[in-house]
Design a protein that fits this description.
heterodimer, A: alpha+beta, Immunoglobulin-like, 2 domains, four-stranded antiparallel beta sheet, B: Rna Polymerase Sigma Factor, Chain: A, Arc Repressor Mutant, subunit A
């Protein structure tokens, strides 16, 4: 294949991707390539830009007024807040041979207005998107806000969030995800410097969390932390 | 009317957790984005669900917006359109009736649209016009109605591979025109 053909081929492929015409396998392969090839990302962006211009012709329709209320409920939990009812202790865990036990107290509470300026973010997602959460870390307060967008723990099971620092040999538990869509965890200050460049993972654990301090169930979702 | 810069500013403030900015962004863009959902899904309940999902994502992902190189309306429309397509694809046994299809030639930009994309719209329209009409319609159907290759092949009554070859060639032609 000549470079010219290759170029056109990637343009067409990026167009098919933007149109959602690729099947699941092709889509995944393309996304894998995009991770390392920023030119592919640019090609998709170009297509999105051109195609979005077509969507400009759609007639705007004002949605009914309760839609915004429902969005706010989902994001900010204004309907289901019960102050003081969700404090829980967490498990402690080992950090391997070099580090002694560190205990984390994780505070699970419904989140009201999110404070300003998360500095790090991660989308932690299953390959088949059956579980998708977004984590935002606020370094000023050491708070990690986790929004569960898709999926939930299986009946009688819990979802546990793990921090795998860059170059670390073992994951460290950050706590359990709440049954609510939004979870706020307090990250121990000794772990804070490890957030940058880390990987977050979610595993399926017994209710109450991993009994061993290391993941015992399937790793359901992973995601890379990136700086905002 | 909200300008591009104003929308960009609102997204930046949303990324800092500013709920007032989030409400203002919703005010400024929800009708446009709901129009996208309705057009693709042609079902009000599904469109409402998708619009909610879109604004949840916008809140979550606004922090990554500044770095992604998208113009604000392209980002919002693409995010919403992709969620609507996902929703469409999860429908079981989606039926397909040519008579119910929109007449794509009827699409005209509304007054609101003109603020954002007059030149872009003119460009894509001009390049679409250079394609054979049925191929241009196939590309539009894929984008605007979320048709899969299988659905397009059924519609045009050609084998799936032929449909794919057609569409890929059309995309390459389109791209050549758009970068001219």
């Amino acid at each position: 294949m000549t470079p010219q053909e290759d170029h056109s081929n990637d343009d067409a492929l990026a167009g098919e991707y933007a149109l959602h015409l690729l099947d699941a396998e092709e889509r995944q392969a393309f996304e894998d390539r995009m991770v390392t090839d920023s030119r592919l990302l640019e090609r998709v962006r170009d297509w999105d830009h051109h195609f979005a211009a077509m969507a400009e012709s759609f007639t705007p329709v004002v949605p009914s007024s309760d839609i915004k209320v429902r969005i706010d409920d989902r994001l900010f939990g204004t309907a289901g807040d019960k102050p003081g009812s969700r404090w829980r202790w967490f498990t402690s865990f080992g950090l391997g041979a070099t580090v002694a036990l560190i205990a984390i107290i994780a505070v699970l509470s419904f989140v009201n207005p999110p404070p300003a300026e998360p500095a790090f973010t991660a989308q932690v997602a299953a390959e088949d998107a059956s579980l998708v959460v977004v984590a935002n870390y606020f370094p000023q307060t050491g708070r990690l806000q986790i929004d569960r967008l898709v999926g939930a723990a299986a009946d009688g099971r819990a979802l546990e969030l793990w921090l795998i620092a860059e170059g670390a040999s073992a994951p460290v538990s950050l706590g359990l995800l709440s049954a609510d869509a939004v979870t706020a965890l307090q990250v121990n200050s000794s772990l804070a410097p490890q957030i940058a460049g880390a990987t977050l993972a979610i595993s399926d654990e017994p209710s109450g969390g991993s009994p061993t301090g290391a993941p015992t169930g399937d790793v359901l979702a992973v995601g890379q932390v990136s700086e905002i | 009317m909200t300008t591009r810069d104003e929308i960009e500013d609102l997204i930046a403030r949303v990324s800092l957790g500013d709920r007032k900015a989030f409400s203002a962004l919703y005010e400024a863009t929800s009708a446009k984005l709901f129009g996208v959902c309705l057009r693709i899904l042609n079902n009000r309940a599904e469109a409402e669900e998708t619009l909610q999902e879109a604004f949840v994502r916008i809140w979550q992902k606004s922090g990554s917006y500044a770095a992604n190189g998208y113009s604000p309306m392209t980002w919002l429309i693409t995010l919403t359109r992709n969620l609507a397509i996902d929703k469409l694809r999860t429908r079981k046994g989606r039926t397909f009736d040519i008579d119910e299809m929109y007449d794509l030639s009827d699409d005209k930009p509304g007054p609101e649209a003109q603020a954002i994309a007059t030149s872009e719209r003119a460009q894509i329209d001009a390049c679409m016009a250079e394609l054979e009409q049925e191929k241009a319609t196939a590309v539009k159907s894929a984008y605007l109605e979320g048709y899969s290759y299988q659905e397009l092949a059924t519609r045009y009554d050609v084998p799936l591979n032929t449909m794919r070859t057609w569409l890929r060639r059309s995309l390459i032609k389109l791209k050549e025109c758009l970068t001219r």
